[in-house]
Amino acid sequence: MTWLFRWIFGYVRFSFRGGFAENFLTECFSDGIQIRDVAADSDGFDACCNLRTYKKLHHYAFRHGGKVRVIKRKGLPFLLLPLKNRIGFFVGMLAFTVIVSFLSCFIWNVEIVGNEQISDTTMYAWLEDNNISPGVMWSSVSRDDVCWNMMSDFEEISWVHINKNGSTARVEINEVRTADKDGDEDKLKGINVFRKELQVVAYREQKDITVKGVKDYSRIHFFNADIPLYFNKKTGDISQESETWLTVKDTKLPIGITTTREQYLQSTARMLSDSELLELAQKKMTYSEESEFDGFEIINKTESHEMDADKCVLSASYIVRRKS
Length: 324
Hints:
The protein is elongated, with a radius of gyration of 32 Å. Helices cover 31% and strands 43% of the residues. A hairpin with a 3-residue loop joins strand 2 (36-40) and strand 3. Mean pLDDT is 84; it is low at 179-190. The relative contact order is 0.10. It has 9 helices and 15 strands. By secondary structure, the protein is of the alpha+beta class.
């Protein structure tokens, strides 16, 4: 992305004529003067350099009996030069940035994904009744409370999350599978108690994972523009993304940078003993309980397992109660 930074700071293409071109270039390079894209001809040469460097070249050219002259001017500074005395243009840019930043504090689009049993019309109406609709400020919305209320009002929803994606509220829904709703869960009359069964499978052959390499890839966000700071991206086994946004008085502006960390892994297979296999299955069951029974209290649990040469199947029956 070197060309982008050169364009932002500006550069010139100049010509050297009427002197000793080789001596001129030798002295410039020995003094650390950065000159690039040199194209020689019979009278001298043409080359490129940044603005600050060009101001120093006249002294070197005079010492070697030649002259330097600008052929082309390129870059952002030269585009803005005619606007130097037009204060209104810069005031307008500042006002535009402030307005866009202010508008980014509102919800302007609502997107729903994952709903199959519940219609979009029903979901949009419910969200509007619960203060999730275009024109509402993000600061007035408690996303966690809305998610809990939605799971309470719709039995078909097992999990929901509202992501803030700029000015878009993305509602991601996981619905209860039909088999689970019809056969796995009995609601006892008069009390908020459920009967539930879980089953996990742990395999004897496991792989030890080691990190072979890590590389970061960054992208600049400027309003709707997305500028990568890399040429080729090699996707890793694990990707972690972090975002940093420019903020003004606690208001996030649509200007920032996203860094994706790609981790490349190497795996080595090994076989578990019976005790290690059962312990692994119990850990997986614990993770399933935390996921399935979030917001519930386990009243009773019955557990059994079956083990063979390849795997361990751990089954558990529960009676759970919703936490008050």
